[in-house]
Design goal:
The chain is an alpha/beta fold and 447 residues long. The chain has 2 domains: 189 residues, Rossmann fold (3-Layer(aba) Sandwich), CATH 3.40.50; 211 residues, 3-Layer(bba) Sandwich (FAD/NAD(P)-binding domain), CATH 3.50.50. The chain contains 18 helices and 18 strands. Strands 3-2-1-4-18-17-16 form a 7-stranded mixed β-sheet, with helices on both faces. Helix 7 packs parallel to helix 10. The protein is globular, with a radius of gyration of 23 Å. It starts with a strand and ends with a helix. The relative contact order is 0.17. Bound molecules: NADP nicotinamide-adenine-dinucleotide phosphate. NADP nicotinamide-adenine-dinucleotide phosphate binds next to helix 7.
C-alpha cells in the first residue's frame, strides 16, 4: 500500500488525487486543506453567478468520495501547522497543490489608500471566504476602477454591475448580497495598460458583460483604434480575434439607458492612486502607445479617472510554504516535471501541481494535464525507490498529535447547514461566511 498526502483540495489537488487512484490500484490518498471546506478556488474564486463552472464541484466531489481518498479539512500545513518534514514521515509522497494565495502588487503611490483593494479581497468577500475582511467595499461609491483586463477583472466588474435580482439565486453570503443590493455604483471603469488585442480575458467572459440586464459596455472606437491589431485582426490568434470582434460590435452599438455602465478602457498605465478626503478619489493613468513589440511606452500625457473604489486585478501570486523551496521571482516552487527541486536536486517524495508549480495562469481544466504530469513522475519514482515511512495510519497519528481534521461527514454537515440557511432566507444554498459558523456546522452544533 502506498500513502500519499495531497495538500490543497482545489482543482489541482482533486485532479491529482483522481489521477493517483486511477493509475495506482492500492494508493491511499489523504487530501489536506487548511479550510474545513473543499474545492479551493472553485468554491472561493469562481464568481457566484457562474453556476455552470461552480457545478464542477460535483465532479470534484466524486474524487473526494472515492473509497481510497479521504478529505481532511481544517489541517494547516507549514507555519503553525503540520510541518512539511512531518508529512514526509507519515506519507510515501506529498503533493503540494496550494495554488497562488496572494495578489500581485502594482507598486504605485497610493496603493494602500482606504478604498483600494486587491480584486482577490473583493472576491473573497462575496465568495464567503472565512478569512475575508468584512468591509464596506461599495459604501459611498459611485464610480469604481478595475485595474487589469483579465478574467478576474471581468468577474469583479460584472459583480459590481449586477442587480440584486440577478444575485439572489446565487450562493453568495447574505451580508454581501444586501450590501451589493444597496450599492450606488453606476460607473465601472475596467482599464488595460496595453491594447484590446492584448487583453487577457476570454471571449465567453467578455461577451457576458454585454448581456447584463441593466448595464451596458462603453468603448471608445478612437482608443481601440490605437491598436494596429484591432484595425486589422487578421494576423491575431483566434482567441484574440474573437475578443476584437466582440469589442468592434460594441463600438458600433449606440449608448443605452441602463442603471450602470461598464467603461472598457485601454492604453492607460496606472501611475498613482490619488487621495480625496482621506481615501481614494481617483486613479492617475499615463496614456501609452504600442511599442511595436507587444508592449507599450508612456507618452507623458496623463488622465485621472474618478473612483471611490479601486480593485487591483493584476494577477495572483504564489507565497512560500515553510519547509519548501521557493522561487521568489516566479512565485512558484522549483520543480522538474512536478518533482520538487531543492537547490537544483530532486527532493525524494515531494511534488507540486497546479498554480504553485506553473504560476497563476490557465483555466480550471489546465490543472488536469498538469496534475497528470506530476502523478506520472510520482509513480515512476515510487516504482524505483520505496521510501520508509511510519506504519501507523496518518489520521490516527495526526489526531494523537492534537490535530482535529474536519472529515467528509463534517463537510457534508456544512453543506446541510448552508442549504438550511438558504431555505430560511428564501434562497437556494447560502454560504456560511465565517470560521465559527463553519466549525459549528461541521461539529453538528447547528440544528
Ligand atoms: P491575468 O489573466 O494574468 O490578467 C492580469 C491583468 O493584469 C492583465 O490585463 C495584465 O496586463 C494586468 N496587469 C498586470 N500587471 C499590471 C500592472 N502593473 N499595471 C496594470 N495592469 C497590470 O490574471 P487574472 O485575471 O487574475 O486571472 C488569473 C487566471 O485565472 C487566468 O488564467 C484566468 O483566465 C483565470 N480565470 C479564469 C476565469 C474563467 O474562466 N471564468 C475566471 C477568473 C480567472 P498585461 O497583459 O499587460 O500584463
Amino acid at each position: 500500500m502506498m500513502r500519499v498526502a495531497v495538500v490543497g483540495s482545489g482543482p489541482s489537488g482533486c485532479y491529482t488525487a483522481q489521477s493517483l487512484v486511477q493509475l495506482h490500484p492500492s494508493v491511499h490518498v489523504d487530501v489536506l486543506d487548511r479550510l474545513p471546506c473543499p474545492y479551493g478556488l472553485v468554491r472561493y474564486g469562481v464568481a457566484p453567478d457562474h453556476e455552470k463552472i461552480k457545478s464542477l464541484q460535483n465532479t470534484l466531489r466524486t474524487v473526494l468520495e472515492h473509497e481510497r481518498v479521504r478529505f481532511l479539512g481544517g489541517v494547516p500545513v507549514g507555519a503553525g501547522g503540520v510541518s512539511a518534514a512531518r508529512l514526509l514521515e507519515l506519507y510515501h509522497a506529498v503533493v503540494y497543490c496550494v495554488g497562488a494565495a496572494t495578489d500581485r502588487r502594482l507598486g504605485v503611490p497610493g496603493e494602500e489608500l482606504p478604498g483600494s483593494w486587491s480584486a482577490t479581497e473583493f472576491v473573497s468577500w462575496y465568495s464567503a471566504h472565512p478569512d475575508a475582511v468584512a468591509d464596506g467595499f461599495v459604501r459611498d461609491v459611485r464610480a469604481a476602477v478595475v485595474i487589469g483586463v483579465g478574467n478576474v477583472a471581468v468577474d469583479v466588474a460584472r459583480m459590481l454591475a449586477r442587480g440584486v435580482t440577478e444575485l439572489s439565486p446565487t450562493d453568495m453570503p447574505q451580508a454581501a448580497l444586501l450590501t451589493l443590493a444597496a450599492s450606488r455604483v453606476t460607473e465601472v471603469h475596467m482599464v488595460g495598460r496595453r491594447g484590446p488585442s492584448q487583453a487577457r480575458f476570454t471571449t465567453k467572459e467578455l461577451r457576458e458583460l454585454g448581456g447584463l440586464p441593466d448595464a451596458h459596455v462603453i468603448v471608445d472606437p478612437a482608443e481601440l483604434g490605437l491598436d494596429p491589431d484591432f484595425l486589422d485582426p487578421s494576423g491575431l490568434p483566434a482567441a484574440q480575434r474573437r475578443n476584437v470582434e466582440v469589442m468592434r460590435g460594441w463600438a458600433r452599438t449606440p449608448d443605452a439607458d441602463t442603471a450602470r455602465r461598464i467603461h472598457l478602457r485601454f492604453f492607460l498605465r496606472p501611475v498613482e492612486l490619488l487621495a480625496r478626503d482621506g481615501r481614494v478619489g481617483a486613479v492617475r493613468f499615463e496614456r501609452t502607445v504600442p511599442d511595436g513589440h507587444g508592449g507599450v511606452t508612456g507618452t507623458g500625457r496623463f488622465e485621472d479617472v474618478e473612483a471611490q473604489l479601486v480593485l487591483r486585478s493584476v494577477g495572483y501570486r504564489g507565497i512560500p510554504l515553510e519547509g519548501l523551496p521557493f522561487d521568489a521571482g516566479r512565485g512558484t516552487v522549483p520543480h522538474l516535471a512536478g518533482r520538487v527541486l531543492r537547490e537544483g536536486v530532486v527532493a525524494p517524495g515531494e511534488y507540486v501541481a497546479g498554480w504553485i508549480k506553473r504560476g497563476p495562469t490557465g483555466v480550471i481544466g489546465t490543472n488536469r494535464p498538469c496534475a497528470k504530469e506530476t502523478v506520472a513522475s510520482l509513480l515512476a519514482d515510487a516504482g524505483a525507490v520505496a521510501r520508509e515511512v511510519e506504519r501507523a495510519d496518518p489520521l490516527e497519528v495526526l489526531r494523537a498529535e492534537g490535530v482535529a481534521p474536519v472529515e467528509w461527514p463534517g463537510w457534508r454537515a456544512i453543506e446541510r447547514a448552508e442549504a438550511a440557511l438558504g431555505a430560511s432566507l428564501g434562497r437556494p444554498t447560502v454560504k456560511l461566511p465565517d470560521w465559527d459558523a463553519l466549525m459549528a456546522a461541521a461539529r453538528g452544533d447547528t440544528d
